[in-house]
Amino acid sequence: MSDVVLQAIGLRKSYTQGQSRLEVLKGVDFKVNAGERVAVVGRSGSGKSTLLHVLAGLDDADEGTVLVGEEDLSAATPAERAKIRNASMGFVYQFHHLLPEFSALENVVMPLRLGGVRVTVAEKQARELLVAVGMEQRLAHRPSALSGGERQRVAVARALIGEPLVVLADEPTGNLDWENAEQVFELMCRLNEERGVSFVIVTHDKTTLDGMHRVLELNDGAIR
Questions:
Q1: Which of 18, 94, 99, 192 is in Cβ range 3.0-4.6 Å of 171 for a Cys bridge?
Q2: What does the alpha-carbon distance between residue 143 and residue 95 come to, in Å, rounded to a whole number?
Q3: Which DSSP string corresponds to 172-224?
């Protein structure tokens, strides 16, 4: 099996604006290796979120290929993409996107349950992950009873629950104060080292870049 867990090959993406066509991605190429922490930076409007959506198979590229492990995400059907995402990818967003009616444990269990894993097995894995992110005292709490930093810790645990090849994180500390942002970032670095899962992190926070193995700049539609 290849050490490359995520690969973008010649990604192009454009949008229609009135009578004109706006090119956002102009031939993006890069690889992410197993166990890597990679940051993607760029000015506002440079296409970083668009790139993440294409890498996740949530948006189609006009041209190009996305490989997750050895699977061609860009050529997959919507149902096949959902299976690949559930089995091989995790996601952390600027807003935690936890389901408000469910507890922390139930939110983390959800991806495994959607994948058909038995409740007892899923709950055991979820508890272990929530302990690993320092949330062992908050398993039964709903998101409304958690602080912003605690919600993001639960979101990180949820992203890792299926032992994915790679986690895509879109400004994961953007809604947090400095102290909580630092703690969540350090948590992701620790879990990367302990569990070997790769992270691709879109960020404006330059203080996090020293903790990255590589920093990629998206500039004029391409990786520099």
A1: 94
A2: 12
A3: TTTTS-HHHHHHHHHHHHHHHHHH--EEEEE-S-GGGGGG-SEEEEEETTEE-
Distance from C-alpha of 202 to C-alpha of 223, rounded to nearest angstrom? 13
What predicted TM-score, i.e. pTM, was given to this entire model? Answer: 0.85
Place of tokens 């193995």: 213
Using an 8 Å Cβ cutoff, are 201 and 38 in contact? yes
When pLDDT is averaged across residues 122-151 and rounded to a whole number, the result is 87
Instruction: Spell out the domains of the chain, with CATH numbers in brackets.
Output: 35-60+86-219 (3.40.50.300)
Distance from chain centroid for Cα 92? 5
Q: Tokens 């569990």 appear where?
A: 195
* pLDDT tens per residue, range 112-125: 887 778 888 888 88
